[in-house]
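As a point of orientation, let us examine one representative protein, giving the amino acid sequence and backbone structure tokens.
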Amino acid sequence: MIRIITAERSAYTTITVDGQLSADSVETVETCCNQARQQGKSVRLFLRDVSLIGEEARELLRRLAANGVVLKASGIYTSYLVQMILHDCLA
């Protein structure tokens, strides 16, 4: 199960994800991010209460970060995973 909340600001869009980020939800999250990017604003993806991040979701996060989406997370595991993904994108 996943819940996605989109909040529009004047300069950016924040997409907040709660739940399990698995293969079933990758396409939905990617679509939300792509639609937000098409509006010409920067996009922030906030993984708030995410309990599972599957391998397909990790690949999605890598693609999004490489395309300029800002990744943020709460929680020890999710924050660590986001930091590793960001580190990989900079390497």
About this structure: The chain is about 45% helix and 35% strand.
